[in-house]
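Agenda item 2: arginine complex prediction
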Amino acid sequence: MAKMWAGVTAGMTDKLADDFNSSIAFDCRMARQDIRGSVAHAKMLAATGILSPEDAEALTAGLEQLLADLESGALAIDPSCEDIHMFVEQELTKRLGDVGKKLHTARSRNDQVALDLRLYLRDEIKELQALVKELMAALLEQAKAHKSDIMPGYTHLQRAQPVSFGHHLLAYCMMLQRDLGRLKDTAKRMDVSPIGCCALAGTTYATDRRLEAELLGFSDIALNSLDGVSDRDFCLELLSALSILMMHLSRLSEELILWSSWEFKFIELSDAYTTGSSIMPQKRNPDMAELARGKTGRVYGDLMGLLTTLKGLPLAYNKDMQEDKEAVFDAVDTVKLCLGVFAPMVRTMRARPDRMLEAARGGFINATDLADYLVKKGLPFRSAYMISGQIVAKCMAGGKVLEDLPLEEYKKFSPLFAEDLYPEIDIRSCMEKRISEGGTSLKSVEAQIAAIEEVLKK
Ligand code: ARG
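Presented output:
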């Protein structure tokens, strides 16, 4: 069959070329948006007198019926159509006859696809935001339950200073809060209607682009038609935001994997989110976290792929741009999948404060406090640091921790040491004393909890 776009060519392409050219296998998911856009287009064409009210009525009713039939399953998408835009127009024309052929007045698939994608991603961003919030809520719940439980904080993956488990989890809430902000920014810049830019140069009809944009819920219109049809910045922005979000999930994954290892055992993931091994009966594998860590590469790939596709494209539309959809769809699907499984996995994980405390006690994570003690007694920090280092070395050699070393031993290193040292190097007090804003003291952790609760309320 000749193509709907048969013109100067006969529209009789080779089957291989058809398959190669076709995007319906993936753009069919924008059917609802395509129809919604077409309804607004028909209304605008009537409001401006380009189409008669009767024609617009027929088109609108036909489109709505088409959508209802798609949703009920009465109508199936024809995979032999080139893309979703062609399918909708073809089906409408099949049903309405010549009136159906009037819908494509004063528009092109170039502005149509740019519109559909914005409408589609606008909805997806809302879903993503809700899922991010669910994960934040799960982290927050755990943070509240463990706001006073001590764990060793690490730098270089070496035990460094005591922090509360709640403080550590709240760090991830902060990252996710920024992810929410990035999604919001993306949605804001996406909130510009390209429809009416037509193929590339605008149109000779007296259309009302602002009315059409308003009908579709956009705050503004693209002011340059060439830019309107060629702009895919919103896809790149979304992919960037999602890449950063996945990087955060990947860091959390790494910690969950480490923490659930025998070596740490700071947490136990629920059976529902743990797999066994086909040959090793003792295994509890954190597959979900590993998969999320792995899928991060895939989302970065989507970003790199599209950046590279768009690089060097001359204005305006080029078929290369058809490659945009699979990249963003894949990234959106992947992130939704990961967030969906992370929220319940985090919510159901069991923390082991006993194991955390044990690790916190054995790692000299109060050595900074030992030095600070001497500083408060008048020694310059660098000298205090030196003495503390020597004491730590002595304890290590003797299989002791700082809390256990008798005062006589301390006095051999400095006459400044006195009985008041011990409360200063008690692990819990080391955590509680970190009262600077944003630190790990209970007061600060509670302030963070309140801040995240505020974000979740919105
Ligand atoms: N399927 C196309 C895409 O996704 C729609 C736009 C086609 N425009 C064109 N001039 N061939 O980009």
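Discussion summary: Residues 110-202+219-358 form a domain with the Fumarase C; Chain A, domain 2 fold (CATH 1.20.200.10).
Owner for follow-up: CH.
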